[in-house]
Design a protein that fits this description.
binds 2-oxo-3-(phosphonooxy)propanoic acid, alpha/beta, binds 1,4-dihydronicotinamide adenine dinucleotide, 4 domains, 6-stranded mixed beta sheet, Rossmann fold, 24% strand
């Protein structure tokens, strides 16, 4: 295996460089490159992995050049700077480090809240300017005040915990927060209007999505208590900046502390210059500890994937541990080949695909196996589909995908069956993995076989009548097509039969036409694996 190559295009801790090197991966550390999108687009094709923070924008345009890219690792939490659908469509795994900087970011939110309450930056500037304005900076006490947390996930919950320690009351709006969890972390779960009405401070901790964009717009800000203070350490765009500025100007909002902005880097912003606004340049995650955490973690995760196939914290693929990866690998190959077998035989719209996992394989990560089966199935029809993109493509096409898990019902320890239902037929194909790790076909349309997946094969369905084999073999012999292996099966004497023949080299179309014209033959197809 050639050494994988990783590009670090953001200011990650150098700890990441060392991990990649120690794991035997070539690494280019270009911390400022993320800001130069043309240069990034020019060189991205050389790399198997890309490690980033928030300055690199992994857009569809850049990813179009990422011919070898297998993984994007975000040393941090938010992945809104990565076009996930574009990465998924190219089969690129996108992973983040969901916990490495959460404490640090929560601490930044608390810091900003306290700085707002006591106007620390303004008082500092005034004092150092020699003004000694003791009467100008009257603060407010935190104790007993209500903090409204919008988005109570990892960071929101840590913020709530610290705020409770400061003797605040915490109300939280988060539609996905269970009442049990709310009770556990000591917050009162409320709806957004209630939060807006009651909070003395509001802090945001949701990702930026279509639902959360402008969650604090002019209407929401109007519903807040007069004198509210707002902190945003999550994402620019959660608060309508112009509406907030207007509410600050009118005095309805007493202060705002922002770490993140609609446009970053924020060189200009409508909030800048207001006396009650405190800004930091997206420093939420910027502590030595957090940066070391996320850099080490992302480098390990990316190395694991590039070297062993283990996947953790991927946004667009199920997790696979380092122990699971080698066991799963032959079954991924089997699932993909079974899907491919069915896909190559299918000529009309697939309405439904059922994947049945029987025996030991049912205990494995079947989501990954299903993704592999779907990629095999769709590739003959759609070309550029892979394990990462296939589930999305299947969904987009309205295909029903069913997974069935059950105990072993046959002589094999593990069997995967792919059943495809099209508008006019239903077809099943089953396979297993032998002890040597090789995938085998064990059943086609209910007929038992025992065949390997050859590179080039002819699949024939015929009536079980004498004379077929001789005629078929001489047709191939006359055309100088060498038969490598030959497998036959039938459902009953004189009933439906199949032949699966591996040949050396591709199968010429005219041979297939002649085979299809033999009296007993119903169908003859060339298959390639
Ligand atoms: N300023 C900075 O440097 C940093 C910012 N962040 C940002 O902080 C945010 C939160 O991170 P985590 O807590 O780790 O994420 P998380 O996924 O643990 O929590 C997000 C919470 O938001 C909730 N949520 C989703 N949609 C919502 C909606 N419409 N209304 C209310 N709540 C909603 C979810 O249910 C979840 O509980 C992310 O956007 C992340 O990018 C994270 C790290 C550093
Ligand atoms: O982890 C996150 O979501 C962050 O926003 C941190 O961003 P950064 O890595 O400091 O550019």
């Amino acid at each position: 295996m050639t050494k994988p190559k990783v590009l670090i295009s953001d200011a990650l801790s150098p700890a990441a460089v060392q991990i990649f090197k120690d794991r035997g991966i070539d690494v280019d550390f270009q911390p400022a490159l993320g800001k130069d999108k043309d240069k990034l687009a020019e060189i991205i094709g050389n790399y198997d992995g890309l490690a980033i923070r928030s300055a690199t924008k992994a857009t569809a345009k850049i990813l179009a050049n990422a011919k070898n890219l297998k993984v994007i690792g975000r040393a941090g939490i938010g992945v809104d700077n990565v076009e996930i659908p574009a990465a998924t469509a190219r089969g690129i795994i996108v992973m983040n480090t969901p916990f490495g900087n959460s404490i640090t970011t929560a601490e930044h939110a608390i810091t900003l809240m306290l700085a707002l309450a006591r106007q620390i930056p303004q008082a500092d500037a005034s004092t150092q300017a020699g003004k000694w304005e003791k009467n100008r900076f009257m603060g407010i006490e935190i104790t007993g005040k209500t903090l409204g947390v919008i988005g109570c996930g990892n960071i929101g919950a840590i913020v709530a915990d610290r705020a409770l320690g400061l003797k605040m009351k915490v109300v939280a709006f988060d539609p996905f927060l269970s009442p049990e969890r709310a009770k556990d972390i000591g917050v009162e779960k409320v709806d957004l209007d209630e939060l807006l009405k009651r909070a003395d401070f509001i802090t945001l901790h949701t990702p930026l999505t279509d639902k959360t964009r402008n969650i604090l717009d002019a209407t929401a800000i109007n519903k807040t208590k007069k004198g509210v203070r707002i902190i945003n350490c999550a994402r620019g765009g959660l608060v309508d900046e112009a509406a907030l500025r207007a509410a600050l100007d009118s005095g309805h909002v007493a202060g705002a502390a922002f770490d993140v902005f609609v446009e970053e880097p924020a060189k200009e912003n409508v909030l800048f210059g207001h006396p009650n606004v405190i800004c930091t340049p997206h420093l939420g995650a910027s502590t030595t500890e957090a940066q070391e955490n996320v850099a080490l973690q992302v480098a390990e995760q990316m190395s694991d994937y590039l070297l062993t196939g283990a996947i953790s914290n991927a946004i667009n693929f199920p997790s696979i541990t380092a122990e699971e990866a080698p066991k799963l690998k032959p079954f991924i190959e089997l699932a993909e080949k079974l899907g491919s077998f069915a896909g190559q035989l299918t000529e009309s719209n697939i309405a439904k695909v059922q994947i049945t996992y029987e025996g030991a394989v049912a205990e494995m990560k079947v989501k990954a196996l299903t993704a592999a089966a779907l990629s095999g199935l769709l590739r003959p029809m759609l070309g550029d589909v892979n394990v990462v993109s296939a589930p999305v493509v299947a969904k987009e096409r309205g295909m029903i995908v069913d997974e069935v898990l059950r105990a072993a019902e046959s002589d094999y320890e593990s069997v995967i069956t792919v059943t495809v239902t099209t508008d006019d037929m239903k077809r099943s194909v089953s396979g297993t993995v032998y002890a040597d790790g090789a995938p085998r076909l064990v059943n086609i349309k209910g007929i038992r076989v025992d065949a390997e997946f050859g590179k080039s094969m002819i699949y024939i369905t015929n009536e079980d009548k004498p004379g077929f084999i001789g005629k078929f073999a001489s047709l191939l012999g006359d055309a100088k097509v060498n038969i490598a292996t030959f497998h036959l099966g039938r459902n009953q004497q004189g009933g439906d039969a199949i032949a699966l023949v591996e040949v050396d080299g591709p199968v010429p179309q005219e041979i297939l036409t002649k085979v299809a014209a033999l009296p007993q033959v119903k169908q003859a197809k060339a298959l390639a694996f």
